[in-house]
Amino acid sequence: MAVTWNNRRTGTSVENKKEKMKYVFLIFFMNLLPQYAGKSLRRDDSNPKPFEDIKNEIAGYTDVAKAIIDLAVHGKAQNRSYERLAVFADTIGPRLSGSKNLDAAIKYMFSALQEDGLENVHLEPVKIPHWERGEEFAMMLEPRNHSIAILGLGSSVPTPPEGITAEVIVVASFDELHKRAQEAIGKIVVYNEPFISYGETVRYRSQGAVEAAKVGAVASLIRSIASFSIHSPHTGWQSYQPDVPRIPTACISVEDAEMMSRMSLRGTKIVVHLKMGAKTYPDSPSFNTVAEIVGSKYPEQIVLVSGHLDSWDVGQGAMDDGGGAFISWEALSLIKDLGLRPKRTLRLVLWTAEEQGGIGAEQYYQLHKENISNFDIVMESDEGTFKPAGLGFTGNAKARDIVKQIMALLQPINVTDVYDNADGTDIDYWMRDGVPGASLRDDLSKYFWFHHSQGDTMTVQDPNQMNLCAAVWTVVSYVIADMEEMLPR
């Protein structure tokens, strides 16, 4: 509001009073402005910025996007996320919730993020499950001696010290198990369910023991949730239910499950001896690991990038989720190296105990949800860092249109697609409450070959593919953090 004193009538006291009131109001209004600094004044869409203006604003980041891509893919930062991950994975190894390895990993990353010159590096305490598999083995005794490759499932109870020796019943589905319930009493249930997709098939791992116990089985062995196998069992979390007996449960290789299925269909009696020394301890202290680049204009507003630092206790956890964690770190490193500082705070969170159901992330959400209006977008990479295909996005139509424009900045590396729905156990809490979410989409054709198995090592990772993933992750997070307005909800 401008006050033009030149046109004022000088002879009238009433007019003088009016002008003074205008001036007082102007000063009052200007004093209010600092209270709203950094607030998205258009979050209610009452006066939305025209989409053409938003498109032009995003197009203005073309040179910045190219600089990020050049640094990540061709420049001094080439292969950096891969090399950092290799040192980490080789030094620390697998990082099971509650383990000393996970503690060591958190301490390692805390120091590494500080040494990288990031801001507000700190640890946020949480309580997480502590389960250990102990010694375990399975041996087929009839119709012949054969060592069965197994991996106990997370939270499984142990067998008695002497183990369990019982006849096997093989089923291909829960429906078959229920139809043959009388046959299952006192037996070990072997599930030979076909792999359809991870989302559909994983229920056999998570619920297999409960369903077997309901019909009186003494243990369950579940065909690994894998699209390909080289006699490799794949572990994972499973859950018991109140008022249902807790029976030991483990995954076996695809090959052994199919062999026992063929034997069973021929009418051959199968007897297996199973021994598992699993133990569950009281919850352990742990931490979510946090680092930031503080925003220059709206520091209280947050663009969150993340991956989880924990893994299973087999392999190296390089793919799940070392790659996602390290390209998220790389995003902040690249922005810092280019001397950029976005308007909003770019926050890196390395979650703990994701594999047990997003335990660390749930406690982070409870701690920070009072500031939910300041979370612009939550991003998680937890489906590998293979050749990137685009971005999974959860948000309203207007926000999706904006993200599509941002992805167009990645045309130089031909990664421009936006897919329906972001995936990420750790960011689900926020997305359910309306915060926009994003996840990296990449080539998953081999992901479940190695997932939760001894095969999840650095050998799976490709430095060139990680470079591309880092470029995508950085361009998206930086542009959203630097745009004048938050994404609409």
Shape: elongated
Give the integer mean of the pLDDT values: 92
How large is the count of helical segments?
16
Strands across the major sheet, in which order?
A: 1-10-12-11-13-16-14-15
Strand content: 15-25%
User: Which residue ranges are poorly predicted, with pLDDT under 50 across at least 5 consecutive positions?
Assistant: 1-44
What does this structure look like?
With 489 residues, the chain is of the alpha/beta class. The protein is 37% helix and 23% strand. The chain is built from 16 helices and 16 strands. The chain starts with 12 loop residues before the first helix and ends in a 7-residue tail after the last helix. The protein is elongated and about 70 Å long. Helix 13 links the parallel strand 14 and strand 15 (417-420). Mean pLDDT is 92; it is low at 1-44. The strands form two sheets. An eight-stranded mixed sheet has the order 1-10-12-11-13-16-14-15. An eight-stranded mixed sheet has the order 3-2-9-5-6-7-8-4, with helices on both faces. Helix 3 packs antiparallel against helix 16 (463-482).
Structure keywords:
single chain; 489 residues; alpha/beta; eight-stranded mixed beta sheet; 16 helices; 16 strands; elongated
Brief summary:
The chain has 489 residues and is α/β, with parallel strands linked by helices.
